[in-house]
Design goal:
Length: 160
């Protein structure tokens, strides 16, 4: 169920996966989705955190004169939505980011709903867990805004 974020005002359909998925529970083809409503509050907070106050993000008059014909959201902000999705949703707590590669295809704007999706493409077992490769996509209005690959370490089930 969608919920309004108390800090940012954005809407996310993600539920927290407090226990996390262990390596043994994952299968090739497993998929997880999340939606985020991009707000002015998210943009402003990201500007504060990152120090990126470029006028393409914050100045309407300036942004109208660019190739985008209006303000656009920081690409890194959009990319960061995968962090919460992976860290709290799928596979969830316990996973560690090893690598990430993203390709930006089109801008995201304030008011857009971004649809994130990750799909397990590879699993490589290790002694204490395994390496999991994910195909990652972010769409706005059915069109790809960014896509790429994410590689994680996911721990095995704890033995009591």
């Amino acid at each position: 169920m969608a919920k309004k974020d108390p800090v940012f005002g954005g809407v996310s359909s993600e539920k927290s996966n407090q226990g996390g998925y262990t390596f043994e529970k994952l299968k090739i083809g497993d998929m997880y989705k999340k939606s985020v409503f991009v707000t002015e509050g998210l943009l402003t907070l990201f500007g504060r955190i990152s120090g990126d106050w470029q006028p393409i993000h914050f100045d309407d008059a300036y942004a109208k004169e660019t190739i985008f014909k209006g303000r656009v959201v920081h690409g890194m902000l959009v990319e960061s939505f995968f962090s919460g999705m992976i860290g709290m949703g799928f596979p969830g707590p316990g996973c560690i980011l090893l690598e990430k590669h993203m390709v930006f295809k089109r801008p995201v704007r304030i008011g857009d709903v971004v649809e994130l999706c990750v799909t397990v493409t590879e699993l490589a077992e290790k002694e204490s867990g395994g390496v999991v490769c994910l195909k990652a996509t972010c769409e706005v209005g059915g069109k790809t805004a960014l896509h790429g690959e994410i590689k994680l370490f996911v721990p095995k089930r704890k033995v009591p």
